[in-house]
Design brief:
Blueprint (H helix, E strand, L loop, with lengths): L9 E2 L20 H4 L4 H15 L4 E7 L7 H5 L2 E7 L3 H10 L6 E3 L13 E6 L10 H10 E12 L4 H10 L8 E2 L14 E2 L2 H10 L2 E9 L5 H6 L2 H14 L8 E8 L1
Parallel strand pairs: 2-3, 2-5, 3-4, 5-6
Antiparallel strand pairs: 1-7, 6-10, 7-8, 9-10
Helix pairs in contact: 2-9
Bound molecules: S-adenosylmethionine (SAM).
S-adenosylmethionine binds next to loops.
C-alpha cells in the first residue's frame, strides 16, 4: 500500500487523531499480492536485509506481525523452528492459504496491539511494512515486548520520512525534519474510515522502542535505489549488487525509504 500518487505531507497530531486500529483498507476489494508485480527489486532488497540481520541466529518460535499474505514467512522459517503469520485482515489470511499451502506456517488473526501469545512465548518477532499504518505505535511496541522472551529479537521495518530526498528538500527550505509522523495518505484514500498512512522519524521510533524495552542493535537502509527510472535502466542483478553494498553504510544517515531495525528485548 505504499508509493503511487504524490504524498500529502501533513504532520500528524497523534494525540488529537486517534489512530485507526482496524486494517479495513485490506478488507476491501484490494488485492495486495498485485502490489508486488514489478517490485522484484524491493522484495529482494527486503529479503537481503532480513537474511543479513538474522545471519548466524536460529530461533525457536517466530511471528510475523501484520504479515499480509505471508510474503516473508518462508524466509523466516529458514531461521526459526516455528513461524506464525499473525495478520488482522481476513482477506490477507485467505490469500495466505494459497501462498503457504503445503508448508507448516501457522496462521492467526490478530492485531499488533493485541497479540494472542503468552508473555515471553516468542524469541523472534518481525513487523515489515506495517509501521506506516501505526502513527502512535507505543501500544504495539509494548505488546511486542510482552510476547518476546528476555533477550529475544525483533525486526521492525519503518517507513522513513527522513530519507535522502526529503532531507535535501527540508534543507533547501530551511525547515527541520518533523519528529512526529507525517501523513502521506493519497487524496483517493482520504476517506473517513481510511486506515492511517504515515512515514516516521527514525530517531523518534527508536526512542519509542527503547521506552518499550526494545534496544536497538543494528539497522539497515533498504530499497536505496527505489526509482522507476533506475529500475528501467539497470539490470536487476546490478540493482541488487548496489543494494547489498549500500544497506549498511547508508543506514548511518537513514538514507533510504525503508529502515530495518534489529532490536533486542532488554
Ligand atoms: C503493506 S501490508 C504488509 C504485509 C507484509 N508485512 C509484507 O511486508 O508483505 C500491511 C499489512 O499490515 C496489516 N495491518 C494493518 N494494521 C495493522 C495492525 N494494527 N496490526 C497488525 N497488522 C496490521 C494489514 O492488514 C496488512 O496485511
Amino acid at each position: 500500500m505504499r508509493g503511487g500518487r504524490r504524498p500529502v505531507a501533513t504532520v500528524l497530531d497523534v494525540n488529537a487523531e486517534k489512530p485507526k486500529k482496524v486494517a479495513n483498507q485490506y478488507e476491501r476489494d484490494y488485492d495486495y499480492t498485485k502490489y508486488w508485480d514489478n517490485r522484484d527489486y524491493e522484495n529482494a532488497a527486503e529479503h537481503i536485509a532480513i537474511r543479513r540481520l538474522l545471519k548466524g541466529n536460529h530461533f525457536r518460535k517466530a511471528a510475523d506481525i501484520g504479515g499480509g499474505f505471508g510474503r516473508l514467512c518462508l524466509l523466516l522459517r529458514t531461521f526459526a523452528d516455528e513461524v506464525t503469520l499473525a495478520e488482522p485482515a481476513a482477506t490477507q489470511l485467505e490469500a495466505a492459504k494459497k501462498v503457504l499451502e503445503g508448508t507448516d506456517i501457522k496462521q492467526a488473526q490478530m492485531q499488533a496491539d493485541d497479540l494472542g501469545f503468552a508473555d515471553g512465548e516468542l524469541d523472534l518477532v518481525t513487523m515489515v511494512r506495517v509501521m506506516h499504518h501505526l502513527p502512535a505505535p507505543a501500544p504495539e511496541f509494548a505488546e511486542i515486548a510482552r510476547v518476546l522472551a528476555p533477550g529475544g529479537t525483533a525486526i521492525i521495518e519503518v517507513a522513513n520520512y527522513g530519507h535522502y530526498k526529503n532531507r535535501r528538500r527540508h534543507k533547501k527550505e530551511g525547515t527541520p525534519l518533523p519528529i512526529e509522523p507525517v501523513s502521506i495518505r493519497t487524496v483517493k484514500a482520504d476517506e473517513p474510515d481510511a486506515i492511517a498512512f504515515v512515514n516516521h522519524n527514525i530517531d523518534t521510533v527508536v526512542g519509542q522502542l527503547a521506552n518499550a524495552g526494545l534496544v536497538l542493535e543494528s539497522k539497515l537502509s533498504v530499497s536505496n535505489l527505489r526509482s522507476q527510472r533506475l529500475k528501467k535502466a539497470l539490470p536487476k542483478a546490478v540493482m541488487l549488487a548496489a543494494e547489498r553494498i549500500t544497506q549498511k553504510g547508508l543506514a548511518r544517515s537513514n538514507f533510504g525509504p525503508s529502515i530495518f531495525l534489529k532490536l533486542r528485548k532488554a
